[in-house]
Request: fold
Amino acid sequence: MSDSPPSSTRIKPDDQRPEHPDFWCKRFGEGITPWDAGCVPNAFADFVVRQPAPLDTLIPGCGSAWEARHLVDLGWPVTALDFSPAAVATARGVLGDAAVDLVCEDFFTFSPRRPYQLLYERAFLCALPRKLWPDWGRRVAELLPRGGLLAGYFFVCDQPKGPPFGILPGQLDELLAPNFTRIEDAAVDDSIPVFAGCERWQVWWRLAAGHHTASGEAQAADRTSGNRS
Reply:
């Protein structure tokens, strides 16, 4: 009789677990990066143009860091974060000598040196196993002060296996609604194949504790349209 545990409880090797950096190091090392658009997506570029001033930005799971390069070229302060050394090495190649704070650390234990005004999301939440989603929701709220923005792309569908792991609208609301109000939500017309038909561009505004949602939406609308509140 075998002494090995049943397959349902057997721990997978680190390079088969997306919550471990070895998973991503293997894929970057083998050049298997279907989530990498190789450019800056349209909705994000438009969002950046609409801001009245540069926002101090954190990009978790930055991967190749195309968006980080775009922002720093426009004079924005940027922290690009990834826990995979191979991803960070790839990002260095894209960033060159650009003045980006490129950090190889875990999003969940990273200690920022300053508060951020914007957290940019693409291909990060959907890369996390579902068991980590509540931790993600809490961490995003911790990193953004009142009035901060969570902006980016969400893989909204019922795809159970991943990455990318699909999230349903109600699940996303459950993660963010206690601390944020959604102020933009639109379909995406330039998705890469791995996300095609399922991406939503969304912007969420960080509420203060006990803040009235309607009031928050009004102030946030002014902010994202280019007006100071």
Remarks:
- The longest strand covers residues 180-187.
- The beta strands are 57-60, 78-82, 101-104, 118-121, 149-155, 180-187, 199-206.
